[in-house]
Write a structure and sequence with these properties.
The complex is a heterodimer of chains A (203) and B (138). Chain A is mostly helical and 203 residues long. Helices cover 77% and strands 0% of the residues of chain A. Chain B is 67% helix and 0% strand. Chain B has eight helices and no strands. The chains are: A mainly alpha (203), B mainly alpha (138).
Chain lengths: 203, 138
């Protein structure tokens, strides 16, 4: 991200927000929205632009409404802090979309079978049951993982993502050589699989 | 990213802010909806350029306990008439209070907002208001 602002400038605006300044949010929007969208677009290049906008806008509005959630004493600068929220929003959006597609796919599959053609009511019930089962299985898997990074990785896998760079972004190792990224991503996936097998009997 | 995309992003965020009561966007949106006016007309009533509406919308709503100071701060930044902004804010607050009091039953009753405006603030359109007041039984 090209440096379009100084860290001290952002910190000053953050403090103004905390002090109750009503217009600091607009000034921050001018400075931050674009760079945040650029970053998120790079991390999720295949996602629709509208989702980039939504993930960033919601993260930004959440922060400005409650600026105290950012603790400058923790040593994490404001932009990476906001990016974490943007990424979380983005993953939630993608997860929701993945579920929607899965359910649509199942619905299409079910409607292609004769039993559904003969008995739409029974078909609907089956679709609902299978959708609920799939949803429950995904939720169970997520609940078995304590680490938020692991959950993000699993969410991407459930969406069918296979590219190393996408997982490397979550692990924060995009700056490392690709071979190292592959190794670390595989290690993370293996660890998650192991946790799921051990705790829940899933693979 | 081109400037037009930048403006698009600001406008999008301002649009999302309409659903959040902490932001002026929600107040302005409520006012425009109740008054049945366009964003251009809203900007005109506030005395700002339509292009500044996104920026104004992204400001935080004035706090009740520091209302005058907050309105003054926003007005100074956007070079708008503080009375106009305060009027909009108070009208929307009146409406919100009525909705809460009536358990949401007033949501479709624009007459309540008109009554609130007539009692507390000088109307923007004197003639229309006078007609309402002069009407027997009003």
């Amino acid at each position: 991200m090209p440096p379009r602002f100084e860290s001290s400038q952002l910190l000053a605006l953050h403090r103004r927000l905390c002090d109750g300044d009503r217009t600091a949010s607009d000034e921050l929007a001018v400075l931050l929205l674009e760079p945040l969208v650029e970053r998120i677009s790079r991390q999720f290049p295949r996602a629709d632009e509208h989702w980039h906008f939504q993930a960033v806008a919601d993260a930004f509005l959440d922060y400005c409404a409650r600026p105290q959630q950012f603790d400058e004493g923790r040593g994490v600068p404001l932009v990476p802090f906001l990016l974490m929220t943007c990424r979380r929003n983005m993953l939630n959006l993608l997860r929701g979309e993945a579920r929607r597609r899965t359910h649509e796919g199942q619905a299409a599959q079910m409607s292609a079978t004769s039993i559904v053609e003969l008995d739409p009511v029974a078909g609907n019930l089956l679709q609902q049951e299978e959708s609920a089962q799939l949803h429950q299985w995904e939720e169970d898997c997520m609940n078995l993982l304590q680490d938020s990074q692991d959950r993000q990785i699993l969410a991407l896998r459930l969406q069918g993502e296979r590219r190393t760079v996408a997982f490397a972004a979550i692990l924060g190792i995009s700056h490392l050589p690709i071979e190292v990224q592959r190794r670390e991503v595989k290690r993370a996936k293996d660890r998650i699989d192991k946790i799921l097998r051990r705790k829940g009997g899933h693979s | 990213m081109t400037p037009s995309q930048h403006e698009r992003l600001l406008a999008y965020t301002a649009e999302r802010a309409k659903a959040r009561p902490e932001y002026l966007a929600s107040v302005l949106s409520c006012y425009a909806e109740r008054e049945k006016i366009s964003e251009e007309e809203l900007a005109h009533r506030l005395g700002i350029a339509a292009s500044d509406l996104s920026h104004l919308s992204l400001c935080l709503r004035p706090r009740a306990d520091q209302f005058i100071d907050d309105v003054r701060q926003i007005s100074t930044k956007f070079h708008l008439d503080p009375t106009a902004l305060a009027t909009v804010l108070r009208l929307v607050e009146s409406f919100e209070a009525l909705v809460v009091k009536d358990g949401g039953e007033a949501s479709d009753d624009s007459g309540l907002l008109m009554a609130a405006r007539a009692r507390k603030h000088p109307p923007a359109h004197q003639d229309d208001e006078r007609r309402n007041h002069d009407h027997p039984g009003s």
